[in-house]
User: Fold these one by one.
Assistant:
Number 1:
Amino acid sequence: MEKMLDTVVIGGGAMGSAAAWALSRRGRQVTLVEQFGPGHKIGASHGATRNLNPGYHRPEYVAMLAEGLSLWDELEQDSGEKLLARTGIVNHGPDPRLPDVANALNQAGIRAEFLSPAVAGERWRGIRFDQQVLHMPDGGQLNPEAALPAFQRLAVARGAEMRYHTKVVELKVMDDGVRLTLESGSGTEVVNAAQVVVTAGGWTEKLLAGAWGSTQLRIPTLRVTQEQPAHFRVADEGARWPGFNHMPGTGAEYKGWYSPVYGMQTPGEGVKAGWHGVGPVVDPDRRSFQPEPVQLAALQDYARAWLPGVDADSFEAISCTYTTTPDEDFILDRIGPVVIGAGFSGHGFKFTPVVGRILADLATGTRPAPEIFRASR
């Protein structure tokens, strides 16, 4: 006999875990299905550090930042886990948006101050600073390896069910909900759900293909890339490390850059640095996990020029995925019985508990997401 469930969350990464947490807080029956095991490294949510970079000026994101800072504090209290190290974030380089960012953050009660490159260099000597420096002390590093289990434990404590190693091989939208065909170690199973929340990262388009039969679902194109940052060994043991983002200009010293550079210190692993969203396009089921050598060499050149506190020749390569929309804004929307959370474009993790709240709003019909996240935009 086919089972009938209330809400099935598909994908147990950051956003799916947060959606299960937020829905369970509202007393909803939640079943989360994840095709891999807990803590796997095949998607986008593994690793011990992500920057909480407050460097936004658009009102939708600034509001989410303010809410997120509060929710991360609440999650730490409820879970007993340390999830955010407030090292501060410094954004620097010839970025014309930085004054707008500073004004928007200060108006929202999120601290932001400009420092000269000389002052910043004295404070954080592991980094060579470029032209203008915006210091945001409320930012820092989040820990996905602690956060995802915290979301899930709190959800389970409120009755949510977690099903690992369970793959959705078919999703069909029906007149009365959604029919899911699941595969696990115990075989194939068909279940019906009143609604589903799809937080499947790089697998989103595969999962939704054919869900509405011959009708083609229209959402922004999702580009899945294999991103290849690296942890560089710390050479200056006395240096302090904020999170950082470095915007390039047009001069000769930026030749060979692929994109802006982001980075942070991961305790015990070194200083992470990486290009943003420019890795090779991949099928998430057929990844090499090997760094693209030309991009990696360019990243080493960046470290030699701009990170005097590291050894650019001593590093460990990292592999993760980005799922990016054309405008780099998220997809947070509901289409019939299907709620979609996708396209976090390499800057979503800081908003994880807010995204969970928004997805819960969509699933319960409480309120829509901001217009910029609509699938039909």
Number 2:
Amino acid sequence: MNTQLRRAVVALAAVSMATGLAACGKAKEAGGGDKKTDAKGSLTIGLLLPENQTARYERFDKPLIEKKIKELAGTSTTVLYENAKQDASVQQQQVDTMITKKVDALIVDAVDAKSIASSVKKATDKNIPVVAYDRLAEGPVKAYTSVDNERVGKIQGEALLKELGDNAAKGQIVMMNGSITDPNAKMFKDGAHSVLDGKVKIGKEYDTKEWKPENANENMKGAISALGKDNIVGVYSANDGMAGGIITALRAAGYDKLPPVTGQDAELSGVQRILADEQFMSVYKPYKPEADAAATLAVTLAQGKALGSVATSTTDSGTQKKIPSIIVTPVALTKADIGKYVGQEGFYSLSELCTDKYKAQCDKAGLK
């Protein structure tokens, strides 16, 4: 087991142990009102996810969070779920609905971290504690969990530089960052720049509206036109969805051999592109530790208990200091790493990865 994965496993174990300790400790009001304190009581937890274009949310985050909430709070617990489909105003309405339904706690992965602040305040004013999930929402959130987002950008940048080798000095790269409404996108970008700046020339850089692959595709077409395809030696893509759009643009431009393209999220299509030597790498963010952390924080707060040792660090947002936090360590994913994770909870089965289209590539990678 590599060091980064071991850290993720250790973090998960710490979360589980801390939850047990918190449940045994004296109940303490954390959300501002009288919450249920019986661990097997009939809680109602709201879960709001930002979009369904990125496969991870419906495929992993939602079921893992729901499963862990019921493990912690009992099978009679209700999880009310909504997906905003990348619409910030819709998500604000969804928060209003959760308030009306009097949920005991609310997990929010914000479409727009700034605009959600007023909705977070509304919920808090109604004694509903809000857990910011994956993206750090502004407003009076009670807790936060995510991966080490700046580390994600560093991993991507380091992998790209290593793959480029001497080619780093022979051309330029294109940087395809995420949406400016997502605070994580800035952290990915900052992490990547801390590694890439001064080591390779960045010919073009884009902040991609709504993370959409089609927008990344258009941006990449513009970069190829401006820089010339022979001058582009690599592409920093902040996630796998955009990598797909970028690779489509590169193929349309007539590359005989694709330059290395990074990614993030270890989406099924992204992992298959890695197997097919179309996408160089992704970043695997172990979804189970992050989902378990969100569930643990939400249930602890819903029961009116102090977070205590459940949250082992703090994070500052644009509006709040020292938010209790659980941060999960991401790991690089190249072709050589895929076999380590196949079949694990939070990853894909062999049959999902190795469809007829990718059977030869799977055989070559030793996935049988």
